[in-house]
């Protein structure tokens, strides 16, 4: 028996070595990511970052899918069928959290409302928001989305009389405007810029027409709270890759090229839309701006019954620090 033992030990060591070779040294962690308005530039880091191989560098594989807006994005996060949601309206996320949903903020989305705009067909008699009547319709994406918040604010603060109507994303909205189903559509550059240049549509309002929303963080990245607690390190790596992707998107021409192909627009149109309407600092994920004003507006528009407390905010906002 004693003479066989060394042989058995060598065989065991050989199989252990083979097992180590067969298993990847750092298998990728898979995250399911729901993206509201997946064609929008500000919501591109997850998809473009995967195309560029950035998330893979951080040991992540993202399974992404698009939704029509915040309401549809929140549902899979709440149910746990998705890990991360991108492009969720800040007030909508607050409302879900206040109602006890397992939703936490992993990062800021877009800050400032100037990029969002509302438009009409070129032959429309409507020249501005003041021209709208009760017989007109004005678009937003889905309930709880930032476009919903802005349109409700148009009605309540600027006295707009048109009927707020959910139309989905910018491509679907454009179709409805051009076919006469909707009077006023919504979009965000570079989507719609080509139609503006061609004289097919006219911009009549921007989100920045509401002074109180000019410096607010309007959308956020949300995460399922249970998933966050179970694999915090994975989400920290996600945010590292997300930040790296944003740096790449604003420094490498390949990002514009890939995005232009994705939305079937020229690179010049895409570049103009990004440079004029979506500066890099507006997409910084590191801090929510104007939280108190956001909560006050959410209460005013009946998204929240009351502002979140300091302790509730600390539980709601879980943005990993840079370098963590």
Write the layout of secondary structure elements.
Elements: H1 5-22, E1 29-36, H2 45-51, H3 54-57, E2 60-67, H4 70-79, E3 84-89, H5 90-98, E4 103-108, E5 117-121, E6 137-140, H6 146-158, E7 163-166, H7 170-178, E8 185-187, H8 193-197, E9 201-206, E10 219-224, H9 225-230, H10 232-249, H11 253-263, H12 267-277, H13 291-300, H14 310-316
Parallel strand pairs: 1-2, 1-3, 6-7
Antiparallel strand pairs: 3-10, 4-10, 5-8, 5-9
3D architecture notes:
With 324 residues, the protein is of the alpha/beta class. It folds into 2 domains: 29-112 and 216-316, 3-Layer(aba) Sandwich (D-Maltodextrin-Binding Protein, domain 2), CATH 3.40.190.10; 117-212, Periplasmic binding protein-like II (D-Maltodextrin-Binding Protein, domain 2). 43% of the residues lie in helices and 17% in strands. It is globular. The termini are far apart. Residues 1-26 have low confidence and may be disordered.
Strand elements, count: 10
* CATH second-level architecture of the largest domain: 3-Layer(aba) Sandwich
Number of helices: 14
* Structural domain count: 2
The residue-averaged pLDDT reads 90
Class from helix and strand fractions: alpha/beta
What attributes does this structure have?
single chain, 324 residues, alpha/beta, D-Maltodextrin-Binding Protein, domain 2, 2 domains, five-stranded mixed beta sheet, three-stranded antiparallel beta sheet, 14 helices, globular, disordered N terminus
